[in-house]
Amino acid sequence: MVTIASPPGTGPDQGTSRRATRTASMAVLAGSLLALAAVVVLSIAIGSNRLSLGEVFHGLFAYGDGEHGYTDAVVRDDRLPRTLLGLLVGMALGLAGALMQAVTRNPVAEPGLLGINHGAAVMIVFAGALFDITAPTSIIWFAFAGALGGTALVYVVGGGRGTSSPIRLVLAGVALQAVFAGINQGMQVINTHNLDKMRAWLVGSLVNRDVGALSGLLPFFAAGVVLALVLGRALNAIALGEDTARGLGANPMLTRIGSMVAVGLLSAAATAACGPIAFVGLMVPHLVRLLVGHDERWVSALSMVLAPVLLLGCDVLGRWVGSPAEIQVGIVADVVGGLAFLFVVRRLKAVRR
Description:
The protein is an all-alpha fold and about 350 residues long.
């Protein structure tokens, strides 16, 4: 079984190693924040009407003086809400992926790839088809139930504690994802009334989302983030093995339950906001570990910064390539993520050698 390596700080040069890791992590954090600022500006500037940097900053900081009424409205009413939504969803997906890889000690675990986001989607479609419930603040509870149910199913079918392998977990996730997709399609055929309403949402999109309704989702985002950050030290202990983790004062069972609840909260909120989006939570934690090592506290924090960079980058790419129309961000993420997944598979093969 290929597992995520132990965190730094356990060898004879742990003091020097910790300082080097902290310095490298701070440098990566600074670069990540700059990249995030750049992609935020691009997300606001690029669209069917491309805006200059001056128009972007005027819309953000000088709105209402009457000089650029139309472009100010584009920035404030369309681009800025879409960008904020991408930031929140990207943070949730990146953190959920980092948590899943850490708690399962499996480098290919990710909510989208393992069908957890599709489990949330099944319950959302179920709520829309049978009860005509489509408001994000209402469907979030259905999404949470679906995400937790999907998490439990994948974990049990994939082998459960201590017996799962990367391949078995992925196969279980892919199989359950196919089942969830079939259920989704079946419910859409039965109830065509909601099909048009749900079509864009089902492929993963940031377009025309009611950002005002995000206030109802924020508590789920916040609870998932706080729970994940609290578990960081325990996840580092589990990476050393269960017996060592207990010796260090961590409770593996409680850590797993807490992590799965956090993954459920984050996946449910992200899926309710913009539909099931895969691969973001797979790619970003891998990149972070390549840059700063295996301290789960840094992996979680940096995944929350870099995942929005990737998600907004895919959204901008879809608008640029599909101009004057656009390609939904979920489709672009699937293409980019599929190529990244091939890289991960190649890397696992190299590790086995």
